[in-house]
Amino acid sequence: MIEYYGYPVESHVVPTEDGYLLTMHRIPYGRALGAGPAPNKPVVFLQHGLLSSSADWVIIGPDSALAYLLADEGYDVWMGNARGNTYSRAHISLDPDRVPDRHKFWDFSWHEIGVYDLPAMIDYTLEVTGQSKLSYVGHSQGTTTLFVWLSLRPEYNNVIKSAHALAPVAFMKHLKSPFIRALAPLVYVLHIVTRLLGVDEFAPSTKMMQLGGEMACRDESPFQEVCANALFLIAGYDSEQLNRTQLPAIMHNVPAGAATRQLVHYAQLHNSGYFRQFDHGLLGNIGKYGSISPPDYPLSQITAPIALHFGDNDWLAAVVDVENLRSKLPNVIEYYNVPLDAFNHIDFQWAIDVKLLVYNNLINLIDIYDN
Q1: What is the Cα–Cα distance from 346 to 177, expressed in whole angstroms?
Q2: d(C-alpha 64, C-alpha 23), whole Å
Q3: How many Cβ atoms sit within 10 Å of the Cβ of residue 178?
Q4: Count of alpha carbons within 13 angstroms of residue 207, beta-carbon side
Q5: What gap in Å lies between CA 292 and CA 282, rounded to an integer?
């Protein structure tokens, strides 16, 4: 997709401390007249959400997609891919599809993405670019992992010029999504059953799913509205902002795969009302944490400048939960309520007017804190 629009692109693979092999995509410069490789370009790192990948930042094309807009503004753009998704489905010794290895490979939540994946990718990005700091933009799970990372590894607060949380997900008590609300009461049983059945991977990306998504969601398909409503059921209804012509490209890249434990962990947050580590049950928690309940993430340790961008119609990041998060963070530099009542969770990446409603303000903030 990136090459199609005439932008340069690179792929970089970095190992994590616990052996996962993560692929990052880089757009080192934009298409503006005279653009090209240059030393000391400011860096922006983009991190995707659950069941997503680096593709989400470029799907809607150069006039609207954030990665292109930032590259054209003069930034060196790096896009991460969390363990287990389409581009990071690899390990130095474990095979995600082989029975002896499969359970070990998929034995992670977004906690491990924050503790291991983000440090590995950020360290590599800074090393390659020669920079000491960068700007960070995360969407959904990309915000959750940001809060895990900076709270448990607070030394990294010093490498963040500014961090921007689009549809921030930490506290989830008041979410409206019927999908998560239906899953949450069954979470403990689901965790046990999936482990017993070996169903450790959730919604993997396959050629059949990609082709099926493209065929079912194209403009002439009678099933296109089914595709749209499937997204709305999870994220919130905003029919006017969804470009249905883009649905085949979206469904070709989403879902990009994840560990079942990532969804289980989110359901636990909804049940408890806290932003805390994975709940292994009474005995498991005593063995792992030395307490009957998992510990909360110490958000007070996050000293980096954080901007929260949220929508009133977000069924996964309810406004009251975002307000709770805001009260726990020491250095909130922006609390931006998108000026459209219907703006939902996925609109932060795919809305028709996302540039006008979100990205112009976002890029202006990045510019301010980059200086």
Answers
A1: 13
A2: 24
A3: 11
A4: 0
A5: 5
Residue 302 has pLDDT above 90, yes or no: yes
Q: Distance between CA atoms of 222 and 216, rounded to whole angstroms?
A: 8
- Amino acid letter, residue 34: G
Residue spans of beta strands (DSSP E) within the chain: 10-15, 21-27, 43-47, 76-79, 134-139, 160-166, 201-202, 258-259, 306-310, 332-337
Residue type, 164: H
| Residue 10 burial (CB count, 10 A) | 12
C-alpha span between 31 and 21 (Å, rounded):
30
How much is the average pLDDT of 173-180? 84
Beta bridge mates, 46: 79, 137
Q: Which SS3 state, helix, strand or coil, does residue 91 take?
A: strand
Indicate the pTM of the whole model: 0.92
Rounded-to-integer distance, Cα 260 and Cα 96, Å = 13
List, in sequence order, every residue forming a beta bridge with 20; answer none if it has no partner: 91
Specify the amino acid at residue 204: P
Q: Which two tokens stand for residue 185?
A: 């009461």
Rounded CA-CA distance 44/67 in Å is 9
Question: Is residue 195 scored above 70 in pLDDT?
Answer: no
223-258 pLDDT per residue, tens: 556 565 566 566 666 668 888 888 788 878 888 889
SS3 for 86?
A: coil
Question: The tokens of 274 are what?
Answer: 């806290």
**Does residue 348 carry a pLDDT above 80?**
yes
The Cα 37–Cα 303 span in angstroms is 33
Task: Read off the amino acid at residue 38.
Answer: A
**CA 324/CA 230 separation, integer angstroms:** 29
Residues 6+ away with beta carbon under 8 Å from 26: 9, 10, 11, 12, 76, 77, 78, 79
- The residues annotated as belonging to the active site are 140, 345
Under a CB-based contact definition with an 8 Å cutoff, are residues 236 and 167 in contact?
A: no
241: tokens are 């902002």
Question: Do 221 and 210 meet the contact criterion of CB atoms below 8 Å apart?
Answer: no
Question: Which CA distances in Å does 221 have to 179, 208, 214, 229, 250?
Answer: 25, 17, 10, 14, 15
The residue whose two tokens read 């983000």 is: 118
